[in-house]
Design a protein that fits this description.
Blueprint (H helix, E strand, L loop, with lengths): L2 H5 L4 E2 L1 H7 L2 H13 L5 H17 L4 E5 L12 E2 L1 E3 L5 E3 L3 H5 E2 L19 E5 L5 E4 L2 E10 L8 H21 L7 E15 H5 L2 H6 L24 H16 L4 E6 L5 E6 L2 E2 H19 L4 E4 L13 E9 L2 E2 L11 H16 L1 H7 L21 E2 L1 H13 L10 E2 L9 E2 L11 E3 L4 E3 L9 H22 L4 H18 L13 H9 L7 H4 L6 H9 L5 H55 L6 H19 L13
Parallel strand pairs: 2-9, 17-20
Antiparallel strand pairs: 1-8, 2-3, 4-5, 6-7, 7-9, 8-9, 10-12, 10-13, 10-14, 10-15, 11-12, 15-16, 15-21, 18-19, 20-21
Helix pairs in contact: 6-14, 9-10, 11-14, 11-15, 12-14, 19-20
The chain binds adenosine-5'-diphosphate and magnesium ion.
The site of magnesium ion has 3 residues, from strand 12.
Length: 645
Amino acid sequence: MSKVQEIYGAMVFDEHTMQERLPSATFKQLMKTIKDGAPLDLDVANVVAHAMKEWAIELGATHYTHWFQPLSGITSEKHDSFIDPIDDGHAIMSFSGKELIQGEPDASSFPSGGLRATFEARGYTAWDPTSFAFIKDEVLCIPTAFCSYTGEALDKKTPLLRSMRAVEEQANRVLELFGEPHQRVVTTVGAEQEYFLISEKDYEKRLDLVLCGRTLFGYSPCKGQEMEEHYFGAIRPSVNNFMKELDDELWKLGVPAKTKHNEVAPCQHELAPLFANANRAIDQNLLTMEEMRLLASHYGLVCLEHEKPFEHINGSGKHNNWSISASGKNLLDPGDDPISNLRFLVFLAGVIQAVDDYQELLRMSAASAGNDHRLGANEAPPAIISMFLGDELGRVVDALIAGEDYHSDKRAEMDLGVAELPNFLKDNSDRNRTSPFAFTGNKFEFRMPGSEQNLSDCNMILNTAMAKSLKEFADQMAGKTDDEFRAAALDYVKRTLRDHQRIIFNGDGYSDEWPIEAERRGLANNKTTADALPCFISQKSIDLFGEFNVLSEPEVRSRYEVKLEKYNKTMNIEIRTMKRLVRRDYLPAINRFAAEIAHNINEIRQACPEADLRTQEKKLQTLMFGSAEINKHPAKSPTSKSAPT
Ligand code: ADP
Ligand code: MG
């Protein structure tokens, strides 16, 4: 076995390990929960907890933690040791089913958007058996959902799981119409993570990078990314070593890290894993981000995950590749002749309807102070949501709307005119890098999310909106006989495509004409976070999440509050940092420089009374004017409120 095969998943209590370690009846029951969503009982949990603990201790673990994603979007953990002292002065290592299933962190110290007051501290974490437990730094980490004492979700995972259930239920109704049995349907996600690596020494010199993750002042370098040398360029040895260790650590954690390369901006890189079910993929993305930050320090580097660390060069995104899969088969795979693949067309029409109807929510999901600097620049998609289908699928959709017949061309052969080079089959469609929501062969790629964001929000929205499209279809097909079904379904697809045609745009999303055209089509253009967030608490949004039990109205409102608060706090930190830099670093430098110029003026005047000193005098005036302006403003900024502990 290769080294990679040996280490892959070594630190994960995955299906293989469960089968090895659990009595077969327990294993079967647990699989029923993981694969079919069956409820879990405490007896099963007790057996699983014991096996998990034995396994973890063998691998050096001393502690366990419920690993969860509060509304800050990052992960949280509190470590408890397995020790249980006994009377004779020794200790045994114990871990019960109850400890596995349920934890009780203090909910008041996490953002809750008003759902929890400080005095109402109780919160619960609940084991999510669909994402495997793993060992990180001698701690057994158990992925969990997090809710308040009164049962409201206080995390990113719970509504995501609820939305996956909603799609599963509605997709099964649709599949049943096609004569398929009830089956496990999941949405799949592949998260491409972009990041910067810079030297620790440079980083430490910049208070703005340390506190805000981005530079607030600066000057464009003489050489930026204009030579297009970095993208896919040879990887520097120190970065390569970092990437190798990162791969090893991720593989041990069962994260299928697959592709790594240099990105467009200097010092920018990307890691793409193989896709997984959305819940697991998001857990894995968070782990990846954590490992990146941690391992960079082994190489004297710092990993920047901010969306726009430096002005004038590209920022970092996190492309959310998304599809739906039923018993492992991809429902967005068009096959050779998409127009005759009715099931595919129904799901495709569903996505188009979902994205058009809930475009503002999708835009909202990618809104943050950091991403505001990225969206709409000539590097990331604009703030307008539109969909790119590509030539082939675009022609299929056009033909359906026009009621014409169209059959796909066979894929053409690519001949490069050099006998030694192999001929290969060309794809039926080119790529469009400017589209925020692009079909890429058998999945959609949502390119708006920023590198720092937790992808749960956008997937929760996509899944719920998709559930709504599928529900509408299934409702309308109810009562149709088998003979009537195909014609009615095709008719439905055509009508849906016609009604939502405006969201499809195959042109250049960076062009000046597009915002004008988009406005004519009635598409939303919410340029900043402040413009984008309010749609979250619109009646349309509250109704959608309520209809599928993904978020209750108080949950929607609290999440909106948390997002607003985070935006405001980020802006405040940036402003306070700017003021600190100006007063502590720039003002003394300005004064020193001014004194130096004044000294020079005097010296030159003495040596050469007729010298032209107007430029120096002007510069001195500018500096003194700037210094006076800075001194006009109060030095003290409001301090942040401290949280109770
Ligand atoms: P790109 O050319 O867009 O940079 P990458 O290879 O970097 O492509 O990333 C593509 C991502 O899409 C990978 O994470 C891949 O696993 C994921 N992907 C492929 N098929 C699916 C699917 N059916 N559902 C979700 N993600 C998918
Ligand atoms: Mg990529």
